[in-house]
Q: What sequence folds into this?
């Protein structure tokens, strides 16, 4: 088995604006099962970071435990990284984010890491609108422990074990909408044309951006009767819109027919262009998003695309009016003003 | 685009760039792997079967394979294929018992081979095992033709030449050396069933500019000069030597001169450096021996004083090219330059010469006095006469002569057996999976990032002192191994089975050179532009699958595929598999499936 990637790349590959080729955003060779959807998501992250000309040191990738949480090893080898304990990725990210608001925080989690052990962390990160991209690599099973149904497995879905799931699955996108997430998208590992611009938009969004990405477990949950298999997702996928992300400085050339298109300007001046496929849906209106989501679910469809975005999003730092300076740039006197200051604060509270 | 027909024997053959570019289609990656495995004898035999002269070609081949090598498209330099061939020849064990064993039961047919060079020798080797009585005629005292007369011993030691020529002659060939054939009519009047002409391009061009007649004694024709030195008819030359010409013969002439008395040897070429016909490595080797190469200087006059050559006057030109790329040399107006010389060697090209073939025999000649031949069968307009090597279509190289020889042998055999000569032998092909277990291959699929290794040279002082001291020392076994590891194993093909693919994209994500795209089908020209990385090298094919369940197709651009096998390793359903493609030009003695080696 190959454990090293060849260093040669296509000679006509272009360098991006900061002088890197796509291979510079890759990680080491994946040890996940061959054909795992997670590897495609890693590929989409690499592609997105290359396309937005991200300087790798400006991003921190954080994860918990699970197949999904192994993936940060397989992308962005030159970025910061923290592989935390199970389900605690949101908390670690919160800490890191509070200490330095100038990095892009990319959290990677799985359906177990998020919807079971990490649920308590997940919901509070949303509630606080922590400025991060939260990618759930959602395969509906515990791949690392041989494929037991996870909390996101759909009711009635049959995994490789042959047992029909008796419980209702948690819809992470619906939950995030309910909790007030300011950016909610769903995608499929096998649809990079949608996933890549969505990751780019999520990185530009100031606030909590949830990407619930269906990612088939090729080993334990890719049989025909599973609702998270390649073939089932492909057959039942339904998109809210065709999606394009336009960075700030690029002129918009796409011209959609009136009434069918929507344009959402992001905080940094970038734009999201949506060619709407669902007429009764508005990406900035939470109610239509919730309705569409329920509608699709009752029709047995898997709704993907950008579901909701709040263009007015204010992240945790704005709410708390925190220092612009990162902790690592502060000196000792800033970080520890001394017992006199403490005494003053204590006096103020008396 | 239509799905690629991988059953076409030429499709995967073309992917093996080196083998495809080789006129004899030697299975290069196969023997390189054997070298890495220290199986030198097997590597030698694969070469011997295909190109007949592994040790000779491992030193002197024109290497059409190397510019074609895929490695040259992903990094700076191709694999040193030619020098690896020499590693096999240098380190091989006993090989003779692996070759067809004479005596062979005779089949009663008698063939004349005119000329003892690589083309004739190849015909001899291919026909001998079938029981032909082969008569080989050559004007020199030994076989080998231009390999002996024109390639200096410091590039090709006589012992190597003798060894490989003798493998063939020992198969019971009747040799008629020291025999200059001066009449085709006479040959035809004998009872030969077929005649093969492999007399090369033995006539060096002359340069009759002012002063030529007076200076004639000190003006030499390149190939004649080299032959004289090789046969020890000449062992010295003047102190100041000018070599005219920019081809490999010129390089051999100047380096030979350095070894037999030339102190100031200068090569003067009328055209610019980039138009020189000599191989870059031959130019480099000449310059390493402190031989200046002057370009853009056409000779104008041989200067003679007191009846003796004193030097040559050269003009100064620059090259201009019209829109069709046609070159004209325009005088720059700078003053002419005189270069003193005791001897001048003219190496400005060579031609075919058939004064010995009477023109009333039914053998037609066309433009440039070249025989009219069928390009596939090498048959002339006189059905029992065949041509090959430089004699066929003008000067080429040894490996081309060998390739001609194989095909001419097929034609001669068919002609003698009453089979139409147009009937050709299909190539031997085989495609087999290299899978040994999960993610395990029979070949070393890791990519070595080493840069091309340089072959070390003999100390200059030593090699210049004696023209028989070989300059190149060849790779050591360790160097040979490391160089062999640079080979990308292009013969191990990425074979795609549409029905197994679940379109998970794993191959797309892992491919280090972004060769694979899943997209809607289209016309080739438009499709090439919208691949992950646009496929702008149109000399390389696109591998197109059948339609997949999502109505897309898989397109693989063969151009810079590293054959690393990662697509297959990351494929969950084995829709990708690494399969070794063997392609062999079938030799006439292998017609019934007989193989001489592994």
A:
């Amino acid at each position: 088995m190959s454990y090293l990637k060849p260093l040669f790349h296509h000679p006509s590959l272009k360098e991006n604006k900061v002088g890197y080729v796509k291979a510079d955003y890759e990680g080491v060779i994946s040890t996940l099962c061959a054909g795992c959807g997670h590897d495609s998501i890693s590929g989409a992250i690499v592609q997105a970071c290359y396309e937005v000309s991200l300087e790798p040191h400006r991003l921190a990738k954080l994860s918990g435990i699970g197949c999904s949480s192994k993936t940060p090893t397989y992308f962005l080898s030159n970025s910061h990284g923290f592989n935390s304990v199970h389900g605690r990725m949101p908390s670690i990210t919160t800490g890191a984010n509070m200490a330095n608001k100038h990095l892009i925080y990319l959290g990677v989690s799985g359906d177990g890491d998020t919807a079971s052990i990490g649920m308590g962390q997940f919901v509070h990160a949303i509630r606080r609108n922590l400025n991060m991209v939260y990618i759930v690599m959602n395969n509906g099973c515990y791949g690392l422990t041989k494929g037991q149904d996870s909390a996101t497995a759909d009711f009635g879905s049959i995994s490789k074990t042959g047992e029909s799931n008796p419980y209702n699955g948690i819809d992470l996108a619906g939950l995030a909408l309910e909790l007030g997430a300011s950016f909610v998208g769903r995608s499929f590992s096998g649809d990079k044309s949608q996933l890549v611009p969505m990751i780019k938009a999520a990185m530009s969004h100031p606030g909590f951006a949830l990407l619930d990405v269906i990612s088939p477990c090729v080993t334990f949950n890719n049989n025909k009767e599973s609702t998270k298999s390649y073939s089932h997702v492909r057959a039942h996928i339904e998109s809210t819109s065709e999606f394009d992300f336009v960075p700030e400085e690029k002129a918009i050339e796409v011209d959609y027919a009136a009434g069918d298109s929507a344009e959402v300007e992001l905080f940094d001046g970038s734009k999201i262009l949506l060619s709407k496929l669902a007429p009764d849906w508005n990406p900035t209106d939470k109610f239509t998003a919730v309705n569409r989501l329920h509608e699709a679910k009752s029709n047995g469809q898997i709704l993907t695309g950008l579901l909701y975005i709040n263009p007015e999003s204010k992240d945790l730092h704005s709410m708390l009016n925190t220092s612009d300076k990162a902790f690592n740039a502060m000196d000792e006197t800033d970080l520890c003003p001394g017992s006199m200051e403490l005494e003053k604060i204590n006096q103020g509270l008396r | 685009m239509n799905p690629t027909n991988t059953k076409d024997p030429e499709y995967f053959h073309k992917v093996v760039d080196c083998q495809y570019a080789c006129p004899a289609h030697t299975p290069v990656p196969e023997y390189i792997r054997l070298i890495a495995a220290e199986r030198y004898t097997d590597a030698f035999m694969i070469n011997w079967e295909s190109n007949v002269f592994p040790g000779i070609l491992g030193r002197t081949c024109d290497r059409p394979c190397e510019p074609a090598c895929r490695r040259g498209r992903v990094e700076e330099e191709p694999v040193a294929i030619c020098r690896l061939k020499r590693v096999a020849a240098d380190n091989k064990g006993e090989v003779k018992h692996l070759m067809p064993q004479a005596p062979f039961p005779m089949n009663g047919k008698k063939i004349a081979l005119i000329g003892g060079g690589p083309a004739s020798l190849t015909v001899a080797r291919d026909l001998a095992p079938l029981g032909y009585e082969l008569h080989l005629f050559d004007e020199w005292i030994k076989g080998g033709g231009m390999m002996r007369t024109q390639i200096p011993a410091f590039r090709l030691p006589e012992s190597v030449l003798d060894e490989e020529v003798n493998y063939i002659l020992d198969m019971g060939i009747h040799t008629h050396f020291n025999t200059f054939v001066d009449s085709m009519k006479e040959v035809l009047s004998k009872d030969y069933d077929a005649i093969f002409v492999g007399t090369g391009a033995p006539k060096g061009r002359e340069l009759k500019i002012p002063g030529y007649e007076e200076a004639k004694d000190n003006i030499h024709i390149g190939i004649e000069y080299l032959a004289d030195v090789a046969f020890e008819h000449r062992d010295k030359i003047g102190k100041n030597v000018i070599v005219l010409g920019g081809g490999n013969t010129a390089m051999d002439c100047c380096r030979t001169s350095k070894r037999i008395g030339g102190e100031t040897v200068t090569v003067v070429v009328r055209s610019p450096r980039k138009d020189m016909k000599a191989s870059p490595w031959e130019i480099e080797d000449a310059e390493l021996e402190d031989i200046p190469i002057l370009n853009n200087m056409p000779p104008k006059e041989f200067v003679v004083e007191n009846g003796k050559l004193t030097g040559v006057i050269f003009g100064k030109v620059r090259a201009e090219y019209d829109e069709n790329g046609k070159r004209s040399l325009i005088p720059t107006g700078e003053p002419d330059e005189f270069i003193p010389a005791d001897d001048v060697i003219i190496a400005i090209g060579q031609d075919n010469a058939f004064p010995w073939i009477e023109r009333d025999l039914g053998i037609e000649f066309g433009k440039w006095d070249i025989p009219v031949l069928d390009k596939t069968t090498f048959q002339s307009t006189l059905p029992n006469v065949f041509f090959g090597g430089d004699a066929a279509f003008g000067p080429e190289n040894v490996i081309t002569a060998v390739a001609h020889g194989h095909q001419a042998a097929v034609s001669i055999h068919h002609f003698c057996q009453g089979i139409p000569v147009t009937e050709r032998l299909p190539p031997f092909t085989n495609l087999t999976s290299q899978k040994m277990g999960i993610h395990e291959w029979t070949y070393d699929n890791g990519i070595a990032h080493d840069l091309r290794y340089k072959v070390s040279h003999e100390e200059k002082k030593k090699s210049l002192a004696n023209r028989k001291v070989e300059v190149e020392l060849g790779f050591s076994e360790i160097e040979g191994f490391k160089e062999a590891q640079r080979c990308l194993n292009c013969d191990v093909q990425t074979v795609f089975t549409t029905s197994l693919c679940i379109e998970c994209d794993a191959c797309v994500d892992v491919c280090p050179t972004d060769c694979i795209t899943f997209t809607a089908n289209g016309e080739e020209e438009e499709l090439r532009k919208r691949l992950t990385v646009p496929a702008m090298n149109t000399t390389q094919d696109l591998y197109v699958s059948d339609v997949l369940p999502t109505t897309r197709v898989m397109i693989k651009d063969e151009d810079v595929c590293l054959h690393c096998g990662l697509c297959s390793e990351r494929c969950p359903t084995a829709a990708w598999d690494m399969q070794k493609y063997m392609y062999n030009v079938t030799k006439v003695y292998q017609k019934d499936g007989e193989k001489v080696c592994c």
